[in-house]
Amino acid sequence: MATPIGSSADAIGRLKELDREARRFEHIGALLGWDRETGMPPRAIEERAHQEALISALHHEKITAPQVGELLEHATAEEGTLDAAFLTVKRREYEKNTRVPTEFVKEMTELTSRAQAVWATARAENDFPAFEPFLDRIVEMNRRLSDYLGFQDHPYDALLDQYEPYATTAEIDRAFCDLEAGLVPLVAAIAEVRPPDDSFLRHRYPADGQERFSRELMVALGYDLERGRLDRSAHPFTTTLGAQDVRITTRYQEDFLQGSLFGTIHETGHALYELGMPAELQGTLLAEGTSLGVHESQSRLWENMIGRSRPFWIHWLPRLQAIFPTQLEGVSVDQFYRAVNRVAPSHIRVEADEVTYSLHVILRFRLEVALISGDLSVKDVPEAWRATSRALLGIAPESDSTGVLQDVHWSFGGFGYFPTYALGNLYAAQLLDVIQRDIPDLWDRVEEGDTSQVLAWLRSHVHAAGSTRRARELMKDVTGRPLGAESFLSYLTSKYGEIYRL
Amino acid sequence: MATPIGSSADAIGRLKELDREARRFEHIGALLGWDRETGMPPRAIEERAHQEALISALHHEKITAPQVGELLEHATAEEGTLDAAFLTVKRREYEKNTRVPTEFVKEMTELTSRAQAVWATARAENDFPAFEPFLDRIVEMNRRLSDYLGFQDHPYDALLDQYEPYATTAEIDRAFCDLEAGLVPLVAAIAEVRPPDDSFLRHRYPADGQERFSRELMVALGYDLERGRLDRSAHPFTTTLGAQDVRITTRYQEDFLQGSLFGTIHETGHALYELGMPAELQGTLLAEGTSLGVHESQSRLWENMIGRSRPFWIHWLPRLQAIFPTQLEGVSVDQFYRAVNRVAPSHIRVEADEVTYSLHVILRFRLEVALISGDLSVKDVPEAWRATSRALLGIAPESDSTGVLQDVHWSFGGFGYFPTYALGNLYAAQLLDVIQRDIPDLWDRVEEGDTSQVLAWLRSHVHAAGSTRRARELMKDVTGRPLGAESFLSYLTSKYGEIYRL
């Protein structure tokens, strides 16, 4: 190494500099990806893949440079300081990325790149056997990945840890068992009751009007259009191009109004988290959500707990009716509220309601754990899917296309990702408990269209920490209790008990 | 160097690989710039500057790497082959970029970054003295730049060469003298005649309608929306994000219809050139316009010679009237044609008509040459501007804001750029002569809205060469004559003689 490292402070300074540059590559990569999904001319796809690979390689080089390892060895900081938090996440990033051999990453990239194409065709043609050998190799590679990354109790821990740092299979399993125990009877009870009418949500809602409403809504929730944009894409997402540039996308289905309504609120929730990082963290690795579960808690809190509440629509329904006067003529707040909270077990996760959604996640979590531990072999997954679905949701998909083949995640190798979706629900409910306590007039304010106190609360309690704190500990401190299903179940029981008059 | 170079073929192969990567950085930089101008959230500007600087530094590193120099030493190719052309432009790129010391580039970047801000304020406040010391340093630095780059006859040659490779001050001066001699009396003769009525172009034309028409027009001219997009920006531009991704922007002034009409055709002309590069050049340095002058010949040919022709509007006016029926009610093709070709000396270059435009360029060329040769000092520029303007256009600006301060170019250090705008006119007219000879029914086809033969002609005669050939030689071979003002003057005399009944 050319430059001597010098003091620990020098080492930290240099690490921060290198980190800042790594973030820049991340943000440039985010622009390339955002453009690909929002408006890139179709024929540019191949060149774009090369451009993205180039930036991604430079980013990887930056975070795994031997210099980073040496600097990390020389850097120490007093516990509890920002520098200590920085060193922790930086060290984590370095280790995660250097433990896995380059050869393995290349193999995985090639495998999953082919697997995604095969999966897409297999799903379209309901042909699991075509995908089976790929899934087989993906499972096997994920087991190897788990060995590279290292774990204490369960090989699945290492995979989980990629998305939900420090989480364990055991604690999630516990929470999910409780969740299942509460959800299954609730779903059964709801199934006994005549569902609310939601036919008016399927009238024709022109995309332009939906977009106008989305824009108005996101701004009202606190999204700053000077620091982001709203665009259209096939699959909604949030992406961070910098501390001052967090963009969201949504899609407008003209015969499915709630798609964009709640999709926009959901992505706004993610974006508000990213935009809420305090100035001193910006441009560093600490200016990120601390885990995908906590990230999802933000999107779900806004989407479901605020956005699907009755007070929220007391304010917003008249505005929506102004844009769609004929489609929503004569619809009352109560009708609307009940319609957007209609519960019905279905096969497709991304279309699931708030009550059954987590059951879809539990199903995937169980199968993933069994696959990684070797208790389940790939050829038996379709049958296991049907059996678990029957146990959890009371229904089993008729085809693999709407069963084992429905999600893209496995085809890109993402084992350990799914649980974070349900963790988001659990954390969101725990947060809501405290928010309701801290803001006594919460629902009166929401009824007036004012959610600024909610945002301010989240800013100071959750966003301000960035990833300086571990998800589990942050959530425990903020909500006063460890991860569990209790809050979420009591929230659901109360809300849907009232809607369905259980 | 780690890898031995081996044969010349190996060296060329490796150079091409390195070049491909350099192009990728260029294209990524183009996306960052495109996004900045079309839709980036305003507060992202500072982070974006860092991102662009990072990519630009990586690009510079790539093209000036010592390895490139070594490979160039070992690489030879048979004259007339594609490899030989590649080596020529690659060598040129390497030398241009290594001759200038990094320290100088840094100094220039810092100077012009400050100068642009100062210039913007100075222009707004009509305060040349505020900008004067910056212009003074910029001229001085351009003289040093010229020394670094090297030249044979005139220091201005080196600056010119940055934008119009291999062009000389002497040859441009000759052409511009002839041009002046023809234009000045033409402008004077036109000034004697009552100008055509163009008031209907200043009705209110909503931007959405203009955009609809722009899109229809560009597609009809041969622009492939699968390989590009049309967006809005404050200043129209064309940018290349890859062989399959060339985007244009335009702006819609609601009380100035011809702005977007001809702006869109102009940028489409640039884009068709970039999109017309043959497959074997794509992804290499050869897949670029061979000079800015030739680039401008494409945009001007489409904008003025085709787009401002009477046959063109025989086809397109009814379509435009369908979009703007009240604004263009009762306007005949002849009225429209005459209105969009109205000539009047004015102060602002970018708003100038086809006849007076080149005089604005000659003015700047003369002052630049005098400044670089030391015959004119910066403090005397405002007066020299007025005197030259009077001599060329018959009018002198009342303020420096509409005189010496009107263009951004000097503030960013771009000496040598302006002449290419007028070269474009000269080359375009020379090309038109041959196109009219090769396509006897050209104007009948244009009248039917079919310009495909023009595009096919340009593709095979101009675009196919990319930058494998020098501008001057390519144009001479294609048009059968060296650079001169004759074609352009005779085109103008005939067209405007008829319009103004001279």
Task: Give a written overview of the molecule.
The structure is a homodimer of 502-residue chains. Chain A is mainly alpha-helical. Among the domains of chain A are: 1-99; 203-347 and 420-458, Neurolysin, domain 3. Chain A is built from 20 helices and 3 strands. A 3-stranded mixed beta sheet of chain A has the order 1-3-2. In chain A, β2 and β3 (245-250) form a beta hairpin. In chain A, α5 packs antiparallel against α6 (128-149) and α6 crosses α7. The first copy, chain A, is globular, with a radius of gyration of 23 Å. The relative contact order of chain A is 0.12. The mean pLDDT of chain A is 96.
Largest two-chain interface: A-B, 35 and 35 residues
Oligomer: homodimer
Element-level helix/strand string of chain A: HHHHHHHHHEEEHHHHHHHHHHH
Report on the biggest sheet of chain A: 3 strands, mixed
Q: What's the tally of helices of chain A?
A: 20
CATH fold-level name of the domain at 203-347 and 420-458 in chain A = Neurolysin, domain 3
- Rounded to the nearest angstrom, the radius of gyration of chain A is 23 Å
Report the β-strand fraction of chain A as a percent range. Answer: under 5%
Which secondary-structure class do the elements of chain A indicate? mainly alpha
- Average the pLDDT over all residues of chain A and give the rounded result: 96
Architecture per CATH nomenclature, i.e. the level-2 architecture of the domain at 203-347 and 420-458 in chain A: Orthogonal Bundle
Q: What separation lies between the terminal Cα atoms of chain A? A: 70 Å
